[in-house]
Amino acid sequence: MTGYQYILEKGSKKHLCPECNKKHFVRYIDTETGQYLPEQYGRCDRESNCAYHLNPYTDGYAKMIWQKEQGQNTSNWQPYKPKVKSKSKPEPVFIPVEVFKQTLSGYEKNVFIQNLLNRVAFPFEVPDIEKVISLYNLGTVKNGYRKGAITFPFIDIQNKVRVIQVKQFDETNNTIKNGTTFLHSIFEKHYTRNNKPLPEWLKAYNENETKVSCLFGEHLLNRNKYNPVALVEAPKTAVYCSLYFNEHLATKDCIWLAVGALSYFNLERCQALKGRDVYLFPDLSKNGKAFELWSSKAKEIENKLQGTKFIVSDLLERLAPESDKINGKDIADYLIKQDWQLFRKQNIQEQPQPEQLPVETSTREKSEHLKKTYFSHKEISKPESINNKDLTKPEKWNNEIKELENYFSETQLPTEPIKLNQCSKIINVSLFIDSHFATVKAHNGNKTYLPYLNRLQDLQRVLTLNIN
Q1: DSSP of 166-180, one letter per residue?
Q2: Which residue, among 58, 60, 25, has the nearest Cα to 42 in the 3D structure?
C-alpha cells in the first residue's frame, strides 16, 4: 500500500491524452472508491514529446475534496492545467557531403545514363547528358547488388541533401521489380549485414520523421528565381522533360521538378515554390484519380502559399487511351518515343486547345503536336524567341571573363581550402581558378561549359563575402 488515496492506475490500459490526443494517457483513480478522478487528471507517458501531467495533490484537488467534506464552499475551485512546453520541430539531419560526393562518378556503369546515350530510339548527345547530370547532380551506385543504379538526390533550396533515391532500370529505362530504394537504406543494410555499428550520421539521420522532405531539383529554384516551374511525379520524368524541352537547360527555360511520389504533393514539400507560377503534370491513372487528387491539392496549397499559382495540365487526360491510364503512364513514356530534336530550337507560340489526335497520326505529326501542346496554356510564359538569332554564333562571355580576371588578380587568394557551397569544397583555390579559366576560354560561349563560368562567379561571391 502506498498510503495515497489517489494513484495512477496500474496495468497497461491507456486513454487519450487531453494534450496530445494520443492513447498514451494513464489516469488517476481513487483507491477508496475505485473510481477515476475527472478525466484531466493523469500522466501522458510520451515524456519526450508531450509530458502532460496533472497531479491531484500538487494542483489542489485533494485539498478541495477535504474542504468539501468539511462543508466549506468549493464552487469557485478550478483544476489547474499544467503548462506543457511546446517542443519545436527537431531540425532535420542531412546526408553528409562526403557521402553524396561518392555517387558523382561511374557514369559509364550507369544503366539509366547509358540507355539515354545508346539504347533509346533517338539517342541524346553527350553534352546534353552532361548538362542534365550537372543540373540535377545525378549519380551512380558503383558497387554491391545495386551496382549500375542511378541516384536521384533531393537537394533543397539551401543546397542541403535531404535524401538520395536509388533507382534500378532495365535496358528500356523501366524500373525493375523492387528496384527503388534509398542510399541511407543501402548503407544501413551493409553495416547490419556485416555486424558493424552504424556511423553516427546515419543514426542521427534515421531519426528524421520524413526523409523525402523537399522537391527533386529544388536547388535550381535559387539559381533561377524568375523561371516558370513545372512539377511532375518522378525524378526520371523531370530529367526527360528537361532534356526534351530545355534548349539552354540552366538558363532561361522552365525548371522541371519532381515530388517523388503521387501522395508527396503537399504543402510542406512545396514551401520553396512560394510566389511562383507552377504547371502540374500529374501521371495518368485509372478513372483520372491522380489528376483529381493533384487538382484538389493544388487549390488547397494555393490558398495557404501566398502568391503561388498552380495550373494543372489535362493534356494526357484528354489525349491518352484508356489502356495508358490503367497502366499509369506519364509524359516521359510519350516523350522517349519522339525525336528530341523536334522539340528544340523552336519559338513556342500560343496555340489553341488541341483537338483529339486521329488514330493514324504519323510519328512526326505526333511529335509536333506534343511539342506545341505541352505548353499550350495561354498563361504559360514563352521562352525568348530565337528566330532572329544566328545559332551558329554563340554569345561570347568576354565581359564576364574580363571582370573575373580583374577581380582575382586584385584579390588575395586563400591558401587554405574554401567551401564553395554546401556540396563543394575547393582544396587549391589558385589551381581551381587557373583550370576553370582555361576551360572557359577554350569554349567561350559554348553553353555546355557554362557551369565552369558559374563556378568562378560563385567563388567571386564567396570571397567577397569573406572579405566584407
Answers
A1: EEEE-TTSPEEEEEE
A2: 25
Residues 142 and 284 grouped into a single domain: no
- C-alpha cell of residue 86: 511546446
Q: Give strand pairing partners of 164.
A: 153
Phi, psi of 280 (to 5 degrees): -100, 135
Q: What is the residue type of 430?
A: S
Residues 383 and 409 in one domain: no
Domain extent at residue 157: 90-214
Tens of each residue's pLDDT in the chain, 468 residues: 457 888 999 888 899 888 877 888 999 998 888 899 888 888 888 766 677 888 888 777 777 777 777 777 777 777 766 665 555 667 889 999 999 999 999 999 999 999 999 899 889 988 899 989 999 999 999 999 899 999 999 999 999 999 999 999 999 999 999 999 999 999 999 999 999 999 999 999 998 988 999 999 999 998 777 788 999 999 999 999 999 988 654 456 789 999 999 999 999 999 999 999 999 999 999 999 999 999 999 999 999 998 999 999 998 999 899 999 999 999 999 999 988 888 765 433 333 333 333 333 444 444 444 445 444 443 333 333 323 334 345 678 999 999 999 999 998 898 888 877 655 568 788 888 988 888 888 888 887 678 778 888 888 988 887 765
Considering Cα of 67, then 71, then 74, then 79, what sign does the dihedral take? positive
Nearest 10 degrees: CA dihedral of 456, 459, 464, 467? Answer: -140
First to last CA, the chain: 71
271 with 374, same domain: the answer is yes
Q: Which of 124, 337, 416, 160 is nearest to 243 (CA)?
A: 124
Backbone angles phi, psi at 458, to 5 degrees: -65, -40
Taking residue 463's Cβ as centre, other Cβ atoms within 10 Å add up to: 18
Let me know if residue 106 belongs to a domain: yes
How far apart (Å, rounded) are the C-alpha atoms in residues 77 and 56? 13
> Which DSSP letter does residue 36 get?
B
